[in-house]
Amino acid sequence: MSVAVENFVKAIYKNGKRDNNDTKPGNIAKELGISNAAATDMAKKLALKDLLHYQKYQELKLTDKGTKMALNVVRKHRLWEALLFKLFDLSLHDIHREAELLEHQTSDLLANKISEYLGNPKFDPHGDPIPNSDGEITTIDTSITLSNTEEGKTYIISRLMSDDKEFFDFCGQHGLKYGNTVLVSKQFSKNKMTQILIKNNTILLNEDFTSIIYVNEQD
Amino acid sequence: MSVAVENFVKAIYKNGKRDNNDTKPGNIAKELGISNAAATDMAKKLALKDLLHYQKYQELKLTDKGTKMALNVVRKHRLWEALLFKLFDLSLHDIHREAELLEHQTSDLLANKISEYLGNPKFDPHGDPIPNSDGEITTIDTSITLSNTEEGKTYIISRLMSDDKEFFDFCGQHGLKYGNTVLVSKQFSKNKMTQILIKNNTILLNEDFTSIIYVNEQD
DNA sequence: ATAAATATTTAAGCTTACTTAAAAATATTT
DNA sequence: AAATATTTTTAAGTAAGCTTAAATATTTAT
Questions:
Q1: Most confident of A20-24, A75-79, B136-140
Q2: Nearest CA in chain A to B83
Q3: Between residues A163 and A184, which one has the greater pLDDT?
Q4: Dist CA A66 CA A8 (whole Å)
Q5: Could you list the protein residues whose CB lies below 7 A from any atom in strand D?
Q6: How far is A58 from chain B (nearest CA, A)?
Q7: Chain B 55-94, CB below 8 Å of chain A: which residues?
Q8: Mean of the per-residue pLDDT values for chain A?
Q9: Residue B44: nearest nucleotide (C-alpha to C1')
Q10: Nucleic strand C within 7 A of Cβ B34
Q11: Predicted local confidence at residue A166, as pLDDT
């Protein structure tokens, strides 16, 4: 399927997941930066391909086939984000932009290889869940925030749930990266600060940060 | 520029480098799997964009601008091949296919990051040169074959110059991979065998293999 | 409930990147 | 050098994925 089609079903999927939940052509058009007319047109075509249900003036509803396609694209997007984030020193914004293009040119085989390489992660660097190759999404997150960790234990960073540039700059400077290992050397119950050892450096974090950094206990 | 345009200039560039050297529309068409008419059509359009010189019934000649574009695509292709080869256990054939798609969706920024990550390699896993960001190609290869190495020294694998599947299967099994480090433990002048230490394993190679494995001395 | 505002749909048209078929030029063979 | 074969070009047409403008339906506000 084409890039346009993949982006179309992805936009419906994402809009459907959101609070507003509006999947009428106009909203999808806005998301994709195309005209309403083009969205209606595409919707009719995709209905013929059994990717969505189309009824005039109604919300667009993905079929199972359409949902599967959307999840497959989302999977590839988030796997690319995770890989690029791990390998390169790039801003999350840049990473998102690259992944937006690469997601459409990635075979299932390559996606699986990326996933395997990363240890089949369940979440991308934003903390968004990565669908598995069957399109299943893990909603139960076993990770905990850094503020809820125990002294002396070692953890692996699993989510950096933020869109804040400054936070990510800080993370970049101190090796706080998806997949990296941290040792919690001290938890200060008084002022809710956490002292961690990462990459041979001791750093002190306040609750603003420890509450958005998610980790998993190392096996 | 579009994928079609990028592939078109790339095909001219590659055909121009080959022995036959035929860059008439028919040959480019064959390379790309499109009709002769489509190739002529495209040639006229690209001439207007100053990417090539077009004269009826003559060979297509890339302009400087066109050559630059072709080299940029080739660079991205080969960087992707090098990266995928390093990271994943995929056949060179699969890697080529993935790179063929990814090359068109890769920003210059990402290309530079990949290059940097790999240590700015001058050759891809096939042994083909990787143009730098200015489109310059290193033709002088400082690497030597494994058969010409010295005992006791450590080298980094720089080229595996083969298209043979069995050779690459062997390489995969023994960690003979682009970028990996080998210690030459013994050179047998008599039967031209080479004993190397790689990934904590000692293996013995005959000249068939040591003459197509290129390495650089470790600094 | 009706008028005004907004959204959707239809219709006509554009560009890109192809196709096939026929005409024109070039290359090859004898 | 002429005849034949091949290649290139032109011409006409198609599908995808858009656009704008106008018609139609729905939603919101009064």
A1: A75-79
A2: A87
A3: A184
A4: 10
A5: A 2-5, 8, 32-35, 37-38, 41-42, 45, 56-57; B 24-27, 29, 36-37, 40-41, 43-44, 54, 56-58
A6: 35
A7: 84, 87-90, 94
A8: 91
A9: D9
A10: yes
A11: 78
**CATH of the domain spanning B3-62:** 1.10.10.10
How many angstroms is C1' of C21 away from CA of B22? 26
A144-217: what CATH class?
A: mainly beta
Nearest CA in chain B to A101: B105
User: Which nucleotides in chain C have some atom under 7 angstroms from a protein Cβ?
Assistant: 7-12, 16-22, 25-27
Number of continuous H segments (helices) and E segments (strands) in chain A = 8, 8
CATH 2.30.30.90 region(s) of chain A? 144-217
Q: State whether residue B48 sits within 8 Å of chain A by CB.
A: no
d(CA A130, CA A139): 10
D5 C1' to B43 CA distance, Å: 25
* Tens digit of each residue's pLDDT (9 = 90 or more) over B69-103: 999 999 999 999 999 999 998 888 889 999 999 99
Between A52 and A91, the more confident residue is A52
Question: Concatenated DSSP letters for chain B?
Answer: --HHHHHHHHHHHHHHHSSS---SHHHHHHHHT--HHHHHHHHHHHHHTTSEE--TTSPPEE-HHHHHHHHHHHHHHHHHHHHHHHHS---HHHHHHHHHHHGGG--HHHHHHHHHHTT--SB-TTS-B---TTS----S---EEGGG--TT-EEEEEEE----HHHHHHHHHHT--TT-EEEEEEEETTTTEEEEEETTEEEEE-HHHHTTEEEEE--
Q: What is the mean pLDDT of residues A11-20?
A: 84
Identity of the residue in B89, B102, B117 whose CB atom sits nearest the CB atom of A87:
B117
Q: What is the ipTM of this complex?
A: 0.78
Which residue stretches of chain B have pLDDT < 70?
A: 19-20, 140, 163-164
